Amino acid sequence: METLEPILSKHPFFAGLDKPYLKLITGCASNARFNAGEYLFREGQEAKQFFIIREGKVAIEIMIPGHGAKMLYTHDAGDVVGWSWLFSPYHWCLDCRALEKTRVIALDGVCLRNKCEQDHVLGYEFMKRFTYKIEYSLNHARMQLVEMHLSEQRP
Asked: How far apart (Å, rounded) are the C-alpha atoms in residues 93 and 19?
């Protein structure tokens, strides 16, 4: 039976991770598919997983009362999406919607949180990797918001 380990081992997010840890992580991974318009997660829902986009594109959105959903930024193939599974109270604070047919590897955050609690070296690895991911996402969002604002200002 073929596993997702070869794909995960080649992904930059898992680069340099010891093989036993990669096997643990693979045990928490599965394939998933979302059609255009479907949500990977919704604000307020329990955050139980995160995603590696294999193909497609997703939008990270925020609901603005009286104005509907506002896109903050997008993620493409290769990107890692979602970190709320790692931080209490483990609920999504944004929406993530597929903009086109999107294939992902879904990683079970509850499974991984438990493994990180049992093995603090693994937990530290995840914290380092997600801290970098969070900083990257915030900078990416900032640049996309500036770009959107500038395009709205053009005549």
From this structure: 33
